[in-house]
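User: Need the bound-state model for 5-O-phosphono-beta-D-ribofuranosylamine:
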Amino acid sequence: MAQKPIHIAVLASGRGSNFQAIIDGINAGEVHAKIKVLITDNPDAKAIERAKKANIPVEIVERKKFATREEMDSAIKKILDAYRVELVVLAGYMRLLTAKELFDAYKNKIINIHPSLLPAFPGVDAQKQAFVYGCTMSGLTIHFVDEGLDSGPIIYQKAVGIAGCKSADEVTAKILRHEHEAYKKIIDSFSNGTYKVDGRKVMYTPH
Ligand code: GRF
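Assistant: Bound-state model below.
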C-alpha cells in the first residue's frame, strides 16, 4: 500500500538548510510528507526564499507583535490548526515554545533537531561547545519538544566523530550533513508508523 504523506509544518528562524533537505527529500520521493506551511519568526529568514521557490505558504509570526510569548504561541497554534497539520517540525527555530494550549493540542506531535548528543550541550552553539570542550565525538539528536530547552524525549541520535575537525565551523558542517539525512528519515517514519512516549522512553511501531 502506498504510504500516505503526513501533513507537516516547518518552523525555522534562519538559513533553513534542514528545511531545504526536507523539501528535496519529498521531491525525491524519500520523504512521504507534504509541507503545508513554513512558519517563521524572522522576516529575513533565508528559509522564506526556499519556501517561495517550492510554492510553500509562509506565515511570519514576529515576537514584537505580541505582548507575551503565550500570545505568540497561540497565534502559531491557530496557523497549525488552520492548515490541519499532523506533525510540527522545528528546524532551526530559535525560540522556546511555551504555551500550554499548544502542547495540549499537539502533544508528542512537535519534534526538533539539535546538533549534539543530548543531554550534552543543549542551547545555542552546541557544535562550538563540543569543539571547545575537546570532544572527539558529538552528533545529533531528534527529540519530541516539551516546555524545556532541548529536553524532550529522544527519538533518534547519531554519533559523529569530530576528532579530526580543526574548527567549530568544521564540526558544524560535518554534523549538518548528518542532520539532513537523519531528519528526512525520521520525518518519513511518522508517515509509516506510530510513536508512543512513555516517560522519557520513545517506542516506534511501524504500520
Ligand atoms: C541546525 O544545526 C539544527 O540542528 C539547529 O539549528 C540549525 C539549523 O540549521 N537546531 P538550518 O537553518 O536548518 O540550516
